[in-house]
Amino acid sequence: EAMEQQTISITKAGIQATLNARTSILAAANPINGRYDKGKTLKSNVAMTAPIMSRFDLFFVIVDECNEVSDYNIAKHITNVHRKKDAALNPDFSSHELQNYIRFARTLKPRITPAAKQAMVRRYIELRDEDKNGLSKSSYRITVRQLESLIRLSEARARLDCSDEITVQHVQQACQLLQRSIINVETDDITLSGEENEMEAEIPDPADLGDQGAEDEAPEGSAPRKATTISFEKYQSIARQLVERLREVENAQLAAQPEGADEDEDGVDGLTKKDLVGWYLEQHADEFADQEALLEEVRVVRLVINRLVNVDGVLLELHAEAEEGDVEDEMHHIVVHPNYVDE
Length: 343
Description:
By secondary structure, the chain is mainly α. It is 46% helix and 9% strand. Strand 1 (7-12) and strand 2 form a beta hairpin.
């Protein structure tokens, strides 16, 4: 209530009172296990729920990385402060001047111009589209709260300029600040190796199906295929599209069940790996320049599905008997894990 409505309700001895709580909240948190994992989202690195996180306007991740230049400058500054005390600090403005500036800026009430309004609406729509298409790296879904954050940041930027109006430039600067905080949290690339080897062995590469002789002549113990590395953005995009597709199919299967049917007995069976990969390729058919790129994308999508099943626990694999002529692993059904919640 204090963060969303800026009020605090108190009930004591039959008396109800509502107090104003108009203040800024600055919070700090340490990552789980003491080290930030770039391969996970911000929400997965801190023990904080998405509803609470969505009420903060900005997030900044500070990672302690070894860098010779920055380590030298930090050590030099700290030792100078210990040696020279206040003489080591030489700010451009005194504390009194800074306090007067902030005190005056807080008295301003900037108004939103029509051009700034259009810029805010356009940017909010872009954020929603990125979130829908899986391109956003936000730790939570983009909602109207982020639009409110954009308005507050634009007003604050106008106050810094001692302006009575919020211009398009102020909105653009607020968007950059918003994008550098909740959107662009640096993440490591995803390496699809190890747990995917078994899957590779069960599903032969389509490029080798036309030449059985060459396969027979391959020496035993040949080197395995090199591990595949994709960006975190691409992995997240593929994973979200697959999950959304499976949810659509599962909802349709539930809707098609007769009334009063037992969900445990006649539950959903999702899609087979073959059908799921085929659907993804149909959605991105225009992005492949040649057959080689298509085959590589098939392999990447299969590896992503296997990681979502065996590592992330987002999907479940239901084993089924393969028909004659089909690869057994290809005919396994894939469903969304019942305990998985979209971040």
